[in-house]
Design a protein that fits this description.
By secondary structure, the chain is of the alpha+beta class. It contains 15 helices and 20 strands. The strands form five sheets. Strands 16-13-15-14-18-19-17-20 form an eight-stranded antiparallel beta sheet. The longest helix has 26 residues. The radius of gyration is 22 Å and the shape is globular. It starts with 8 loop residues before the first strand and ends in a 6-residue tail after the last helix.
Length: about 475
């Protein structure tokens, strides 16, 4: 094991760029333990696919790349799979599919590493996050005497912490996840009259995700449910090709061209009012394998994303506020609703709202996905210490440069939604809040910090992002 050259490291979104002092490609657990012994003062961080917009991978000292940790082992009961931390989700899904298996939950894309996905609570729609299905984790960390060691975590609060740890417990080496028999998903895209119509259809389409379309502010539902029989539709290949070419590529190219390069609000408006409606065919009902239907090519174009989770009971006012603020940012003369005005005034943020008026025209569909409550301490859908309920992830994406106008609007939404709706930000997306601002949203934070102290007593695995987002509060140092 030799450290690699000191080139700059850049994430997928291009908003994170840094140069570690040393970068390692360990081949086995002994290599990882030697790295921990050599870098006892840290920070030590791990890089996976780099498909995260938060500062989780940044380090001024040691960066560990676990791409050689890719072993996949299906247990005899065929209900569990142990997989190396550096294995890509796409590779794991392909391995399972050849054996008639799959994962209970996957995100929109499959290019992330397994460890990176569970560390940040990666999720799909209609089920728990991937973190919830973790049964055990092997972690390289520090013992009571300060020596590097490997621990297997498979129960209790430590497992709940390890299921979504943002890398704060140590270097995850291997993850054991639940797996299930391969299943098929039936889907179609259909326009809905409003949020009520979508939520009313949730029991019939439990895997659905939906979109709030900017400029028209109409709702488009990606209606999805588990198919009764495992038979691929005859037009499934055509459907997937159409979706890839027309939606994932051409529509995104159009948005990129009009919003980012030409910076034309009128052309973006034309795309959503005229072009998008003719690209959606509600009569197409297509059944295909789950790992084909549930994935999208969300990774083809660089972008910046912030994702906000709100509990089900707060979904309606949260989406109303998002819509109001984005309209006000697009049009300085837009009058926000009385309810939104009262909420903003209660937080004394009227001046902050005025500062973003007319400053940014949102140009990408706002994706909303339901996530069932997780048995974790700090995943965004964690139910620890509170009544169990579903959470809804509201995703805000920009393709434009410079990104500051979007960031100003997204920051305003984050700072209002956290106190108003008990909102939580995705650990792997752009994260403009600090530990004090999120403290009340996570009843499991104190327990998580206590577990971190047991695995990393000197704070070796903490970088600036983790210090600010998780640890630096008035009563915890």
């Amino acid at each position: 094991m030799q450290p690699r050259g000191l080139s700059h490291v850049r994430n997928f979104g291009g908003n994170i760029r840094f140069r570690p002092r040393k970068r390692y490609l360990p081949r086995d657990e002994e290599d990882v333990l030697r790295i921990l012994d050599e870098h006892r003062t840290g920070p030590i961080r791990v890089i996976g696919a780099g498909h995260s917009w938060s500062g989780g991978i940044e380090t001024s000292d040691a960066l560990v790349d676990l791409r050689h940790f890719r072993r996949i082992r299906i247990h005899p009961d065929r209900r569990r799979v142990s997989v190396g931390a550096g294995c890509r989700i796409a590779e794991l899904l392909a391995h399972l599919a050849r054996r008639g298996l799959t994962l209970p939950s996957i995100g929109l894309i499959a290019r992330q590493t397994v460890a990176g996905a569970i560390a940040t609570g990666t999720h799909g729609s209609g089920r728990h996050s991937m973190s919830h299905y973790v049964e055990s984790v092997r972690i390289a960390c520090y013992g009571k005497n300060g020596e590097a060691e490997v621990r297997r975590v498979d129960s209790g609060q430590a497992l709940r912490a390890a299921r979504c740890s943002v890398g704060a417990l140590g270097v995850v080496l291997e993850v054991t996840l639940k797996c299930v028999p391969q299943y098929y998903v039936r889907e179609r895209c259909v326009w809905r009259a409003g949020l009520d119509a979508i939520l009313d259809n949730e029991s019939a389409a439990p895997l659905q995700q939906f979109y709030l379309i900017p400029h028209t502010w109409a709702y488009l539902e990606h209606e999805r449910s588990v198919a009764v029989d495992n038979h691929r539709s005859s037009i499934a290949m055509l459907y997937r090709a159409y979706w890839l070419i027309v939606i994932d590529v051409l529509l995104h190219l159009g948005i990129k061209l009009t919003a980012s390069l030409l910076r034309s609000r009128r052309l973006v408006d034309f795309i959503y009012r005229r072009l998008l409606p003719v690209c959606i065919f509600p009569q197409w009902r297509v059944t295909d394998r789950s790992d084909r239907q549930l994935l999208m090519r969300h990774d083809l174009f660089r972008h910046l994303e912030m994702e906000v989770f709100v509990p089900r009971e707060k979904l309606r006012p949260a989406l109303a506020l998002v819509s109001d603020i984005l309209r006000a940012a697009d049009n300085a003369d837009y009058e926000i609703s009385a309810g939104a005005h009262d909420r903003i005034r209660a937080l004394d943020l009227q001046d902050a709202l005025e500062n973003i008026r007319g400053s940014y025209s949102h140009h990408y569909p706002i994706c909303v996905r339901r996530v069932l409550p997780d048995d974790t301490l700090i995943s965004m859908a964690s139910c620890h210490g509170m009544e169990e309920q579903d959470w809804y992830a509201v995703s805000l994406i920009t393709f434009t440069h410079p990104r500051l106008p979007f960031q100003n609007v997204a920051h305003f939404l984050a700072t209002t939604m956290a106190p108003l709706f008990n909102a939580r930000l995705h650990w792997g997306k752009w994260f403009p809040l600090n530990a004090r601002q999120i403290e009340d949203s996570y009843p499991g934070l104190a327990a998580f910090r206590a577990i971190c102290a047991q695995f990393d007593p000197q704070g070796v695995f903490r970088n600036q992002y983790l210090e600010e987002a998780l640890f630096r509060t008035s009563d915890y140092q």
